[in-house]
Task: structure prediction
Amino acid sequence: MKVRVGREVLAEAVGWVARGLPSRPSVPILAGMLVEAADGQVTLSGFDYESSAQVSVPAEVADEGRVLVSGRLLSDICRSMPGGSVDLSGEAARVQVSSGAARFVLHTLPLDEYPPLPEIPAATGVVDGDVLARAVHQVASAAGRDDTLPVFTGIRLEIRGSTLSLLATDRYRLAVRTILWEPVDATFEANALVPAKLLGDVTKAMAGHDITLALGSTRTGDGLIGFEGGGRHATSRLIDGEFPKVRGLIPADSAIASTVTVQTAALVEAVKRVALVAERSAPVRLTFEDGTATLDAGNGEEAQASEAVEITLGGEPIVAGFNAGYLLDGLASLGTPFAHFAFTQPTKPANLTGLASPDDRPTPDSAYILMPMRLPT
Result:
């Protein structure tokens, strides 16, 4: 194999594939990255039996070939190279990576031990990559991080004809976003639970291009989903488990007793400041009344903080307490100048949505449900 590739193009592609490689693989061979040179391009692939990633980039191919090398090491080398292009050359036992005056020699891994990448299922539909990446960003912060509860670490995809809904929850908050897409079969319906971190990485990398979703069997323990877009391919096994029935937490319009509209940036800065004195498990108290939201944190025995921001209140005044981190995550996910809260009661979940202007009405295509915390008496 003998090829030349632009340094920035190669470093970005190798880095994306390397991010999905296990740091402590169950089988050493899975730490490898497959490098294939043919037909004027270099294809980089990684696979750990749970997920796969593959990307092709243009290259000057003098000699075709394929080698398997340490993926993370190759990523570190390509990122540190000084020149505008990188040369890869070698054979079965060793590969030389050079750029300018820098030169590295890597020992290869046995190709015959590397497992074949899974085949991407038949296409289910196509979605705008920017729209999907934005939707994933909006819900991903609500997904859990505890690997002992895998069901809560995923984003649930609900396909109902031309609508694609994304849901995530860690039991303390819930995020929902519904977008339009183009299904191959307009009557198709399915549910799939995809690892949130992988879905975020994949959609971020494929943003700017149409993304083809390919959903395989959703039978227990046998599910696979594929993504194609912008010269990249990825697959992931679906998370096995029953996602909780969470849609009932979204308050019905008829049950709303109070609403609050506030400038998102102003509330974010106020929450950040008062949260400086809040203990990790203590809530930030928000008192909504008379056109003002007063934020309080801390207690009389230690530091205290208070700040007020202007709001538009609809309905009765209300006092609620929220985890500061969860509230900030929800506000950050909106991406709109104004935030809108809908309350049924202070002790019931509140619905946080984004508005482009204070006179707009919330749309049913998104929700960020915050579970309130008990306030000290």
